UniProtKB/TrEMBL annotation:
Any one Gene Ontology BP term: regulation of DNA-templated transcription
Signal peptide limits: 1-20
Name used for this protein in its record: HTH luxR-type domain-containing protein
SMART domains noted in UniProt: HTH_LUXR
Keyword set includes Membrane: yes
Coiled coil: 422-466
Domain of life assignment: Bacteria
Transmembrane parts of this sequence: 381-403
Length: 580
């Protein structure tokens, strides 16, 4: 009987007026406002007890008033007003938080999570656990995303309590353990104590008193200076049912009673009065127990609800039975049974509400799982698409590299072929130039030979004229040696060896060219000057110039075209071409 109060006390101290978090998770919005937010968070965590929260709120509202167009700052000012205004009616607080959520929109997910967390706290106090659970789950996702382990621990803590109410002890334990682990990481000793006490309550309700006692026994070893007054009362109330030694019962019940008086919490004070009375019953002091039982009855009648009155009647019945006042004991025992029966009736309704609550929470969980599955599916789809694109990109880069290497190799091969062709062409050009020089030399030698022979003939004619010497045979021999046709035939034979198809190409392209004009073309091709050509042809240089002019005209070449350049640039059949 005495043990039933521990659960209710945990509910009373389950939620805080404002949930604390590491201020660094707030995105900066203004130096002055951010500084006040730092103080507010510190006060919420119990680290800034030397500041006045109402003063902080007043200064926040003053700063926000200077920035009427900053919706995020206005939303945060509303949030802190709710946190620092525990006297606000739940409906008013909920409406203010709705306004804050509307102002902040989706621009600041962390702000939304904080606001929803505070709404969940309000809904929990109103026993609207389904909506509270939904908000806790939404907030937890953001806290986990940004790494706010303190507030993530709070969400698990509160979700654990909801599952405890539903009798889902496995889920309650898992969330309480998660909360304890998160609080340990942020070095929140006071928070860990709350989580440990919740775990003890879960084990006790689940029928595993051994685990509950182990936790409470470990807590009893802690320095009480590190506990808040409320935490100390909750611990003592939960620990008393496990004690059998009268001295320990009296010690712990008295400590709980004195601390409960300090808190000013009527429910805590009621439970401490009952625990004190039961301790005196166990010690065999019914008169002392009667004093605390009657004080508990007066307190319970002044409370709005009949919660705990059943325990008051049970204690009074035991007190009168110990005094052997059977009529009074029977009277209070009857009241106890009546109250319990009424409680059972209320319990049936509560069971129905619990079943409905379970169904609602299960729907929320299923929807959350469906959303998670959809998100996972989308993530997998994006991953597959991303990997496919990455693979395609890699394949494209690989193919491009292969093509590039192939092109570079082909370019190197082509450059090598071009180099070899150029070297071959240079070699051939050198050979042609050498042959041309040889032809020119032969032509000049022939010219000089003919000139020498003509000079010899002229000298012999002078001798014949002056001395009447017969030179007929010698002159005939000399004249036959300078027959130009034979010289030309020899030159032509050598020229075609160096420049094959030259005459046939010109003849095919310019059929009107005469043999003498073709001969002139050959002399021009090997680079002889007009004077040299004139000496070979036994004509004046002027005649050669005129012949060149007529040749250009017959070939249809412009005046600016040099015949020597034209003949050198001709591409004749059989000429070498670049390797492919």
């Amino acid at each position: 009987m005495k043990r039933i109060f521990s659960i209710f006390i945990l509910l009373v101290h389950l939620t805080l007026s404002c949930l604390a978090a590491n201020n660094s998770f707030w995105k900066p919005i203004g130096e002055d406002f951010d500084r006040l937010t730092l103080l507010a968070d510190g006060w919420s965590r119990g680290e800034q007890r030397d500041v006045n929260p109402r003063d902080i709120l007043s200064r926040m509202q003053s700063v926000a008033a200077l920035h009427p167009g900053d919706d995020v700052m206005q939303a945060r000012a509303i949030y802190w007003r709710v946190c620092f205004g525990p006297g606000l009616e739940p409906a008013v607080a909920d409406s203010l938080l709705d306004e804050a959520l509307h102002l902040v929109g989706d621009r600041h997910p962390y702000d939304r999570a904080r606001f929803m967390m505070q709404q969940a706290v309000i809904l929990s106090k109103q026993a609207d656990y389904a909506d509270a659970y939904r908000l806790y789950m939404s907030a937890a996702a953001e806290f986990e995303a940004v790494g706010d382990e303190r507030l993530l621990g709070y969400t698990h803590y509160n979700i654990s309590y909801i599952f405890l109410l539903l009798g889902e002890y496995a889920e309650a334990e898992a969330n309480a353990v998660a909360a304890d682990s998160l609080f340990a990481r942020v070095h929140g000793d006071g928070l860990r104590l709350d989580a440990q006490m919740l775990l003890a309550s879960i084990y006790e309700r689940a029928g595993d008193s051994g685990k509950a006692y182990d936790i409470l026994h470990e807590v009893s070893r802690l320095d009480s200076a590190g506990m808040s007054t409320a935490q100390r009362v909750v611990f003592l109330t939960a620990y008393l049912p496990y004690l059998s030694d009268p001295d320990s019962l009296f010690k712990y019940s008295d400590a709980a009673y004195r601390l409960a008086e300090v808190t000013g919490d009527s429910q805590l004070y009621l439970s401490s009065l009952l625990n004190k009375g039961w301790a005196f019953i166990d010690m065999g002091l019914p008169d002392s127990a009667d004093h605390y039982a009657r004080a508990a009855r007066r307190l319970s009648y002044g409370m709005r609800t009949a919660r705990g009155r059943e325990g008051v009647y049970k204690l009074l019945a035991s007190v009168n039975a110990a005094r052997r006042d059977w009529d009074s004991a029977y009277h209070y025992q009857t009241l106890y049974y009546d109250t319990r029966e009424n409680a059972r009736g209320d319990g049936v309704l509560a069971d129905v509400r619990t079943v409905n609550l379970k169904q609602e929470i299960e729907k929320i969980r299923i929807n959350a799982l469906i959303e998670q599955d959809k998100e996972a599916t989308r993530s997998r789809a994006f991953l597959v698409v991303g990997l496919s694109l990455l693979g395609l990109l890699a394949a494209s880069v690989y193919v491009i590299c292969l093509l590039k290497r192939k092109m570079q190799a082909e370019q190197r091969r082509q450059m090598e072929r071009d180099r070899q062709y150029i070297a071959q062409l240079n070699h051939e050009m050198q050979l042609v130039e050498s042959k041309n020089r040889e032809l020119s030399s032969n032509a000049m030698l022939l010219m000089k030979k003919n000139e020498s022979l003509r000079k010899a003939i002229r000298e012999m004619e002078n001798i014949h004229k002056n001395y009447h010497v017969d030179i007929g045979d010698i002159k005939s021999e000399l004249v036959s040696s300078i027959k130009e046709d034979e010289s030309w035939d020899s030159f032509k034979l050598h020229f075609e060896g160096v420049h094959p198809h030259f005459f046939s190409f010109l003849k095919a392209k310019y059929p009107r060219l005469t043999d003498n004009e073709l001969r002139l073309c050959a002399y021009i091709r090997i680079g002889l000057s007009n004077k040299q050509i004139a000496q070979i042809l036994l004509v004046q240089a002027k005649a050669v110039i005129q012949a060149r002019y007529r040749l250009k005209k017959k070939m249809g070449l412009g005046e600016e075209t040099r015949l020597s350049d034209y003949f050198v640039s001709l591409t004749l059949p059989g000429d070498a071409s670049p390797a492919q």
